[in-house]
Amino acid sequence: MVADTDPVAPLMRKLRARDVVSAEEENALRDSISEIRDFAAGRTVIGVGANVTHSTLVVDGIVSRFKDLSDGQRQIQELHLAGDFTDLHGFLLKRLDHNIGALTRARIALVPHERLRRITEEQPHLARMLWFSTLLDAAIQREKILTIGRRTALGRVAHLVCELHLRLEIVGIADESAFGLPLTQLDLADATGLTSVHVNRMLKQLRDDGLMTFRGGTVTVHDRDRLRKVAEFDPAYLYLERRPR
Amino acid sequence: MVADTDPVAPLMRKLRARDVVSAEEENALRDSISEIRDFAAGRTVIGVGANVTHSTLVVDGIVSRFKDLSDGQRQIQELHLAGDFTDLHGFLLKRLDHNIGALTRARIALVPHERLRRITEEQPHLARMLWFSTLLDAAIQREKILTIGRRTALGRVAHLVCELHLRLEIVGIADESAFGLPLTQLDLADATGLTSVHVNRMLKQLRDDGLMTFRGGTVTVHDRDRLRKVAEFDPAYLYLERRPR
DNA sequence: CGCCTCATTGAGTTCTGTCAATCCCAGTGG
DNA sequence: CCACTGGGATTGACAGAACTCAATGAGGCG
Questions:
Q1: CB of A119 nearer than 7 A to strand C
Q2: Which of residues 179 to 198 on A have a Cβ less than 7 angstroms from any strand D atom?
Q3: What is the tens place of the pLDDT at every residue in A161-217?
Q4: How far does B218 lie from chain A, in Å, by closest CA?
Q5: Is beta strand B35-39 parallel, antiparallel or unpaired with respect to A63-68?
Q6: Is residue B73 less than 8 Å (CB to CB) from chain A?
Q7: Phi and psi angles of residue A211, each rounded to the nearest 5 degrees, phi first
């Protein structure tokens, strides 16, 4: 499951998909990690309202950012994959307005805010890349607002799969036509604003239409073009172009 | 309509609700404005994909950030009020993945990226406040994901009103019990992921229940506590506490 | 005065949710 | 080796929320 033993490897892939990162910057990031922890599936990494002193980088596994309503309904606001900082924003906000939980077994690196502060003071370009990655999160969240607000149930599920597929490819843990996604249908429901029953029906339809199969924690994409068409998926919001420094 | 002739006045109120801002920082922000432009209601401020060289600060009016689907459905991802930067993130992203449009007549200040870069290099605390304001946008967007994904239609409308009420109070253009909101019901529909017909029905219900009235571009809140209860509105996500420097 | 946009309302439809039963399968213990 | 268990997946029948279509009303503006 852990493709790389280097905890910053996925992060570097993610950053290098968008910008040039020097070896010193890579080392600075590696050195910023104070500790690496493993979380069991279902465990809360950071609860809402907690004061945070570390930011957390996903090294392996899938982590969700979510909020619940009083009747118990849950909404996953973003799924974080290997290479994502789940709460870089905690560095400035100091407390979180949502929860962070491990959906699968997850390995998470802790980065003390103190070291982030040093980076912002001493390494402007690296600091800008970190800022950029919070903006990328925001762009992903904006797309989710569009998805949940206006796409049909089928499009929502398809869009989620398209996005996760591409994001996993970027960090090197997805094939062209298949990738591991060890989530339950309830997790997908919480991420798409649907019920698990309806997610099940939509998955069946996608399967019957020959677009994709989700089984045993693995997604197999049979027809990526048509899947993207159903999802109306346009990866522009993921900003996958190298920017000049 | 324009309460203050100082273009940065709403921004200063917004920042000072969360942090201490020095007079020099205030002046630096004022000096960062290169130009102020007026837009008619309905005008596009920045189209999707456009390369941006300026960030835009709303001085007066209401500006929306939105995306459309191919069938013409629109989703407003965030409403920006006086004091909000609509695309501070454009400073790093360089192009936008969404549109920015004026929903009402709007006055907008342009801030060249060059001057923002100088701020990030010379004024770390001010730079951090600007970064903070992009994180605040992200927090507002996360709350919208929850709203659209899991709240009922009635709760969505009520939540939007509660949020706008509080945000307008912060910048000093709302009373305790009333505020101007010159939007159409279609705008509210695009912001809540509903249809205008259904928004109309929800507004009627809120009115009949004695919670609030929306008429002639003005919201009158009759019972703020109950409205917040219906919306399950918790302002924690707006981070309205002064943070120690 | 007439036009145009927006608001309002009713009737009927469709999509998604709810409830509940059944199935599947991996893990456990006998 | 097999029965048992429990969490998820699947399916059907039904309910209900939100949408669509369409007509009417209200108000602002030239």
A1: no
A2: 184-186, 196-197
A3: 999 999 999 999 999 999 999 999 999 999 999 999 999 999 999 999 999 999 999
A4: 25
A5: unpaired
A6: yes
A7: -95, -45
- Burial code (b: 16+ CB inside 10 Å, e: under 16) for B104-139 equals bbbbbbebbbebbeebbeebeebbbbbbbbbbbbbb
User: Between helices A153-170 and A185-192, what is the axis angle to 10°?
Assistant: 100
The sign of the CA dihedral B233, B234, B237, B238 is positive
Chain A: residue nearest B145 by CA?
A145
Residue A138 beta carbon within 7 A of nucleic strand C: no
Q: Does strand D come within 7 Å of the CB of B195?
A: yes
Q: What is the pLDDT of residues B173-225, one digit of tens each?
A: 999 999 999 999 999 999 999 999 999 999 999 999 999 999 999 999 999 99
B229 touches chain A (CB under 8 A): no
Interatomic CA distance for residues A150 and A156, integer angstroms: 9
* Mode of pairing for the β-strands spanning B106-112 and B35-39: antiparallel
Q: What is the enclosing helix (H) or strand (E) of B22?
A: none
Whose structure tokens read 């019920």?
A195
Q: Which of B94, B121, B142 sits opposite A124 (nearest CB)?
A: B121
